[in-house]
Write a structure and sequence with these properties.
- This protein is an alpha/beta fold.
- The chain has helices at residues 2-16, 20-23, 32-43, 71-74, 91-101; strands spanning 25-28, 48-52, 62-63, 66-69, 81-84, 110-112.
- The chain has a six-stranded mixed β-sheet with strand order 3-4-2-1-5-6, sandwiched between helices.
- The chain is globular and about 30 Å long.
Length: 114
């Protein structure tokens, strides 16, 4: 089931990146995929620092207690682990290019989860 798979992903994220217990995470995508990931992370005690979003209607809002930031502002947050959680075709590749271009390294400072 999708929920069980998401719990499994989060379990392994926490084990592979123990620093997130201290630094929290930035979730790229404030849509349904990102929100579900956010709830699953919260259930195991991982703090959401922020959501990163391109949709101007969502930027400036708060979701699950975390601010929704534009991409430029989210890229300034260097300590938390960044998690790509978008479901649109091609979005993962665009995020990889953007994050790598800003000096983030996949599987070290950002992880694609969706």
């Amino acid at each position: 089931a999708p929920e069980a798979f998401r719990r499994c992903k989060v379990h392994h994220l926490v084990r592979a990146y123990p620093r997130i217990a201290r630094t929290g995470v930035v979730i790229w995508g404030a849509g349904p995929v990102g929100k579900r990931l956010s709830r699953t992370l919260e259930a195991v005690g991982v703090r959401r620092v922020a959501f990163a979003e391109v949709d101007a209607r969502k930027i400036g809002q708060e979701i699950h207690g975390a601010p929704v930031l534009d991409t430029a502002r989210a890229l300034t947050l260097r300590e938390p682990l960044h998690l790509a959680a978008v479901g649109q075709p091609g979005a993962r590749d665009r995020l990889r290019i953007m994050l790598a271009g800003a000096g983030f390294e996949e599987m070290k400072s950002f992880v694609c989860t969706a």
